[in-house]
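EI: anyone free to look at a 1305-residue chain?
SC: sure, send it
EI:
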Amino acid sequence: MLLTLVPSALVSYAAGVSLNITDENGNDITEIQQLTEYKTLQLKYTTTGELPEGTTVKWESNLPLLADVDDNGKVTAYDSSKTAIIQLWLDENVRVLPLVGDKMADEIMKQLEKSGVNLDSMNDDLIVSIVRGIAGDTLADSLASALANMNVEITATIYDASGAKLASDKIKIKVQKSVVANIFPTGTHITNKKSVPLTVAVGKTVQLYAAVTPVRLKHSVKWEMGGSVFDTSSGKRATISDTGLVTFTAAGSVTVRAYDASNVAFVDTITFNVVEQKDLPVESFDIISGTKTVTDSSVSVSEGSTTQLAITNVVPAGAYTGDLTWEIADKSIAVVDASGTVTGLDGGDGLVEYSKSTTLTATAGGVSKNVTIKVSRAGVVGSISSVKIEGNSAVPNDTPTTFKANVLPSRLNTNSSVKREWGLTNPDTNEIIWATAEAPAETKLATLSSDGVFTPKSSGISEIHVRATLNDKTVEDSLTVTAGKAITDFSIGGSTTVNESKTTQLSIANIAPSDYDKALLGTVVWTSSDPSIATIDANGLVKGLDSGGTAIWNTKKVTITATIGSVSKSVEVTVRGNSIRHLTGVTITGNDYVIKDFPVTYTAKFSPERISVDKQRWGLTKDDGSAPWTSDWNIGDVNQKNAYASVDSNGVVTGISAGDTTLHAFGRNGVTKVDGAYVETQKNITVVEVEPVSIAFTAPTKTDYIEGSTELDLTGMEVKLTYNRADIAEYYGEEAANAYTDDQLSVPVTDYTVSSVNTSILDSVQYIIVNVVRAGKTYHAIFPITVHSKAVTSIELENPKKDYLEGDKTLDLSGLKVKANYSNAESEYVTDYTVDTSSFDPELYDVEQNITVTYTHAGRSASATFPVIVYGKPVVSVDKGDYNGGWTSKDVTFTLSSTHELDGVKYYFKTDSAGVEAPLDGNTLTVNVNSSDTYYFKAVNSKGIESDYTEGYTVMRDDIEPSFTLTPTVTALTNKSYDVTIGSLNVGASGIASVTLNGEDITASHDSFTVAENGTYNVVVTAGNGLTAEESIVINNIDKIAPTVNSITVLHKGIGGVAREVSGNFFSKADTLCRFFNKTVEITVDASDEGVSGIDKIEYRFVDENGQPTGSDWSVYDSENKPAKDPDFKGFVEARATDKAGNVSAILRSDGVVIDGTAPTDVTVSAVYGGDKEYQEGAWSATDVNITLSSEAYSGIYKYYYRVDGGDWQELSGNTFTATETGEHKYEFKAESYAALESNVTAFTVKIDRQVLLSVFRSRVPSADGRVKALHSTSLPRKLLFPVLTIIMTTETAGLLSTAARVLR
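SC: here you go
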């Protein structure tokens, strides 16, 4: 986003008070705000200083078509386009101009669109250039300014209670284009609502303009009275045209709305306060002419031209000015009609006076204003385009030569208003010296008078100038003229005899003086005294035409003259006969000029005179410059009229307009072109227009007309132009001019123009202008007429549509015809009547209303009424009884009633299935057949007005009771769930409403249901019509309860019992109950089944101590032949049961089972003494003997037993025994297995002697046999001996101790 910093726009009008525009969060706005079309921006403001009571804040946008702001500061972006700027500029600056506004605005748009370039992409300079060419600099500059400032300025201003400004601030908005706005409008806007007066007087008209944004959518605008469709009061106080012209007819509040013709949601409104005329009188106004206000109290108009006046700047702007009148003081100078059109009549004589003035008065609302009307002499119709000097470029010295200055168009040559000025170039200064009436232009070479007479002083080259001026336009021409020594004498040389139809060449000879200026030879003029005898061309070539006979002695003579300057010489030329019997030539005699209004008769003289002319024709050169016919003996079509003149068959030429043309003559003799001949010639003539002295006018008899019959009846009108005899003589000569009587100098003319009747001016005198143009000057005559308005006496109506239906909000007036009857004219159908639609109440039903039509014309009114009736549209009500929709098994009866029945009503119905409308007999319809259909009802009242069809009433009738069967898919015993099929289901068209199973809804899958357990299953099918069917099924073949192996019993086969039952750490498991057996065991398995199927089989198997099966896997248990297990075995017995439904019990594992049929091995005895010294059975030991027992059995050793010297067996707690008894003892040991089997007895003798010898201290070294050699003895008490021994034991070897111990014992 491009943000541009903008300077603060805060303005304070009162000391200490300021206003600052912020965003909706109270933040200052310091940048141009970017706002996309359709988007809004909420603005707020803050103030400083003390505000007086009654202050208000007003929000405004300078470009409301681009973005506007509401009273609360909410800005909405509407249009980003340049087109919108132009539209707004046209409505605010151009269309508001009186007289020319709309036309100028339309022309501007036409030319802009004609360029073929999209306005938004068109260069601004090009747009402004186009507008400048149409509307001028001021308006073009204002548009340039608007295009250069497309940022919208939003202004907030504080006003005090009196309306004085206290402070203001403004921000700028840049509107961005939205893609959505290429399709959908953003709003409708009355573009000139801020410039029109909001308080207006009754009778005032206000032109409104509106546009739909974005303007590029080109949506049209529609206008209506009232702020909404519910506002009917505005339409009673004003009317509005399709183009937005509001006419206020009664006092009160009036709201006008404009809306998008394509989308009525986009609306703009404007409200006016309409007051009586007396309450809003006119105070002042200005008069405008064209686009300029008359500020100098003077309006200029030329004779025969018009200018349109209007009033503007009316104060107050809303005042009524419909009574405006125009009046001119001197109607001989100018006249004005009721529309303000001024026509100039008399601008003076052009000699002394070139303009005349009179006073015009405009009066509106009792206020008058005067301006001066200045009528200028017309002088010329059109303007001169060029001027050309005619005359020889070589002239003799000391001889005056007259030059002419001819202007184009040539009709202005005789116009006295054309001013011609002659001048010479000064060869010394190269400046032009202009001649005056008092003094000619003069140089050292020549003089030139003010009327074009050039007189050389000496030989040399001069440049003469002419300038012609008419109506402020000046054109110029120049010619280089050579002046030389004049020829004073010469002779004509050459043969002076020529035969008929032959030629002879003449020349200039014997020229004197000898030093003549040779350029003068180019000025020679040759003439023939009788061109019918012989002619001579510009080069001196003579052609013989008529000798008077065919014989050679037949001759005629003619004088040929040559003129150079002022010197002329002649010779006589003889034309001799030449046996010629056909035409040799023709000459035209007659004036060189034809004055318009004074025809000239020309004569064609054929040569030879003796030859009869069989066919003669006159013609004029065509407008394209070609000949009037094809040159041939068999002459074809002849052109006898062009833009300048016409010629009849007698050679009478009548002037049409000033200019040069060529008259042609043709003649032939003979029967065919073989024995005859044709001749033709031409003559240049100039048609001139002479200014008449005056115009005489007789007005037509009829001056009163009736409106509508305004074709002018010019019966009795005569226009005559009176000429000056001297002016005629200038071209025709005095003799011819004097031949005209005074009456003949007053010539009736018919080439006048008559202005049109202004049919908008009624019952007032208007002036018809008759214009005749001669010599570029317009001559006027006027006569008054009055167009009387048709006097309305009554109107007759051809009534429009009478009958309307409820909902019709507007009258259909397409059939309305209004015939106006007049007291002074034939009746006619009119269209500019008004219909008082405000009296039409579209909600008043079934009652005749009279609508008034008023035709007002020229202040007279007549009214008539026509009837309308708004028939309430029947509305059918339907009573369905107790039927509330949905499926039913009962009959359904519809009872119908209707509004607006009038004299009765007929009911009809149709259904979706049939689609064909059918009448009802009465007002009820009973549906008693099974179907699902939608019924629609309508009523037709006695007036034939149909109601709309009601909404559809759907009846779903089905009296079929449902039925079905239940079939299990499994009939055998099973341990699985299975489906029960709901089959043979029969329902009517209503279908299935619900299916329940033991009260639970299973409609979604009602084809079957799954049974998981035995029991009674109750199925209820309910149809859409409410009828039900119920079926039950008992399920008793499902057994999902697995049997139970209650116990596994292991006992000795045949004898029963167990060898031992011990809990302990068996099979690597703590607290294991293990049963030990010492012979073959028998297995008993007990199982039970709580299900309905019962036990089918019991299986067993043996698994080792690790749980791995031994041998085959499962075997079927037979209670009649119970399985047995021989020794040796260590493990478990497992059993399982299967019921008849296939349910398998959990595997039951027995307690540990060990079968050991072999007694333990003999007990092995190992003994140690004295710590860890190995003890040999039967050896003496001075210490206890520790005995360790060992034996092996399959089932493991349960206990060890011992006895001493044949005593009772004693149980050992382990496998160790300590012999402590002194002396020699026999110890016996045996082992018992867990299987209660004993080993053989093992005996073991242990000897222990604890006495110590005294001699043991005599020698520390034992003998080789291990005995202590005692050499001395010491008698010590035994209790004292042991401590000594102890000391010895700690210092002596173990062998000594052992020996000593033995000795002591």
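EI: The mean pLDDT is 87.
SC: 👍
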